[in-house]
Amino acid sequence: MAEFNVMGRIDEKSLRLECSGSLVYEVSTQAREQIRPYFDKMAEGGQCLFLMDNLKRIDSTGFGVLIHFVRQAAIRKIKLAVVVSDQFILDLFRIAKFDQVMTVAVDEASALQALAFECPPALSPQEY
Known about the structure:
- By secondary structure, the protein is an alpha/beta fold.
- Helices cover 38% and strands 29% of the residues.
- The protein has a five-stranded mixed β-sheet, with helices on both faces.
- The termini are far apart.
Protein backbone atom coordinates (compact mmCIF):
# COMPACT_ATOMS: atom_id res chain seq x y z
CA MET A 1 0.00 0.00 0.00
CA ALA A 2 1.14 3.53 -0.77
CA GLU A 3 2.33 5.78 2.02
CA PHE A 4 2.64 9.57 2.20
CA ASN A 5 4.18 11.61 5.02
CA VAL A 6 4.66 15.31 5.59
CA MET A 7 6.71 17.16 8.17
CA GLY A 8 6.14 20.89 8.48
CA ARG A 9 8.31 23.69 9.76
CA ILE A 10 6.71 27.08 10.10
CA ASP A 11 8.08 30.45 11.11
CA GLU A 12 6.58 33.96 11.00
CA LYS A 13 6.36 34.18 7.19
CA SER A 14 7.15 30.82 5.67
CA LEU A 15 6.19 27.17 5.76
CA ARG A 16 8.37 24.28 4.60
CA LEU A 17 6.57 21.00 3.99
CA GLU A 18 8.92 18.04 3.61
CA CYS A 19 6.94 15.43 1.67
CA SER A 20 7.95 11.80 1.30
CA GLY A 21 6.48 8.60 -0.05
CA SER A 22 3.89 8.51 -2.81
CA LEU A 23 1.32 11.21 -3.55
CA VAL A 24 -1.19 8.97 -5.31
CA TYR A 25 -4.90 8.15 -5.32
CA GLU A 26 -4.76 5.71 -2.39
CA VAL A 27 -3.43 8.37 0.01
CA SER A 28 -4.87 11.57 -1.48
CA THR A 29 -7.38 12.18 1.35
CA GLN A 30 -4.76 11.39 3.98
CA ALA A 31 -2.25 13.72 2.27
CA ARG A 32 -4.75 16.59 2.20
CA GLU A 33 -5.52 16.03 5.89
CA GLN A 34 -1.81 15.96 6.77
CA ILE A 35 -1.05 19.19 4.89
CA ARG A 36 -4.12 21.20 5.90
CA PRO A 37 -3.22 21.91 9.58
CA TYR A 38 0.12 23.39 8.56
CA PHE A 39 -1.38 25.33 5.69
CA ASP A 40 -4.19 26.74 7.84
CA LYS A 41 -1.58 28.33 10.14
CA MET A 42 -0.03 30.31 7.28
CA ALA A 43 -0.36 34.07 7.45
CA GLU A 44 -1.72 35.93 4.46
CA GLY A 45 1.12 37.02 2.19
CA GLY A 46 3.49 34.31 3.43
CA GLN A 47 5.28 31.69 1.38
CA CYS A 48 5.18 27.90 1.32
CA LEU A 49 7.70 25.43 -0.06
CA PHE A 50 6.67 21.87 -0.85
CA LEU A 51 10.00 20.03 -0.52
CA MET A 52 9.52 16.87 -2.57
CA ASP A 53 13.04 15.49 -2.85
CA ASN A 54 11.88 12.32 -1.06
CA LEU A 55 8.75 11.87 -3.17
CA LYS A 56 8.87 8.52 -4.97
CA ARG A 57 5.67 8.74 -7.05
CA ILE A 58 2.92 11.18 -7.97
CA ASP A 59 -0.18 10.65 -10.08
CA SER A 60 -2.96 12.90 -11.36
CA THR A 61 -4.78 12.69 -8.03
CA GLY A 62 -1.59 13.82 -6.29
CA PHE A 63 -1.44 16.83 -8.59
CA GLY A 64 -5.08 17.44 -7.66
CA VAL A 65 -4.12 17.58 -3.97
CA LEU A 66 -1.48 20.19 -4.77
CA ILE A 67 -3.88 22.20 -6.96
CA HIS A 68 -6.29 22.34 -4.03
CA PHE A 69 -3.61 24.10 -1.98
CA VAL A 70 -2.58 26.29 -4.93
CA ARG A 71 -6.16 27.59 -5.05
CA GLN A 72 -6.25 28.13 -1.28
CA ALA A 73 -2.93 29.99 -1.50
CA ALA A 74 -4.20 32.28 -4.28
CA ILE A 75 -7.15 33.34 -2.12
CA ARG A 76 -4.81 34.14 0.79
CA LYS A 77 -2.02 35.64 -1.35
CA ILE A 78 0.47 32.97 -0.27
CA LYS A 79 3.37 32.34 -2.65
CA LEU A 80 4.03 28.67 -3.38
CA ALA A 81 6.93 26.71 -4.77
CA VAL A 82 7.65 23.01 -5.26
CA VAL A 83 11.21 21.73 -4.93
CA VAL A 84 11.84 18.52 -6.87
CA SER A 85 15.32 17.19 -7.58
CA ASP A 86 14.36 13.81 -9.13
CA GLN A 87 14.47 14.37 -12.90
CA PHE A 88 11.64 11.93 -13.67
CA ILE A 89 9.25 13.56 -11.18
CA LEU A 90 10.39 17.02 -12.29
CA ASP A 91 9.49 16.04 -15.86
CA LEU A 92 6.03 14.96 -14.66
CA PHE A 93 5.50 18.40 -13.11
CA ARG A 94 6.48 20.05 -16.37
CA ILE A 95 4.42 17.69 -18.57
CA ALA A 96 1.41 18.43 -16.36
CA LYS A 97 2.20 22.14 -16.86
CA PHE A 98 2.35 22.57 -13.12
CA ASP A 99 5.24 24.99 -13.61
CA GLN A 100 2.71 27.40 -15.17
CA VAL A 101 0.66 27.76 -11.97
CA MET A 102 3.47 27.91 -9.43
CA THR A 103 7.24 27.89 -9.12
CA VAL A 104 8.83 24.49 -9.70
CA ALA A 105 12.54 24.39 -8.85
CA VAL A 106 15.32 21.83 -8.51
CA ASP A 107 16.56 23.15 -5.17
CA GLU A 108 15.41 25.30 -2.28
CA ALA A 109 17.70 28.23 -3.08
CA SER A 110 16.31 28.50 -6.63
CA ALA A 111 12.76 28.30 -5.32
CA LEU A 112 13.34 31.06 -2.77
CA GLN A 113 15.01 33.25 -5.39
CA ALA A 114 12.07 32.79 -7.78
CA LEU A 115 9.59 33.66 -5.03
CA ALA A 116 11.57 36.78 -4.16
CA PHE A 117 11.17 38.08 -7.73
CA GLU A 118 7.37 37.78 -7.41
CA CYS A 119 6.80 36.85 -11.04
CA PRO A 120 3.14 35.95 -11.47
CA PRO A 121 2.49 32.46 -12.82
CA ALA A 122 1.48 32.09 -16.47
CA LEU A 123 -1.86 30.56 -15.46
CA SER A 124 -4.14 31.33 -12.54
CA PRO A 125 -5.30 28.33 -10.49
CA GLN A 126 -8.76 28.71 -12.02
CA GLU A 127 -7.32 28.53 -15.56
CA TYR A 128 -5.34 25.36 -14.82
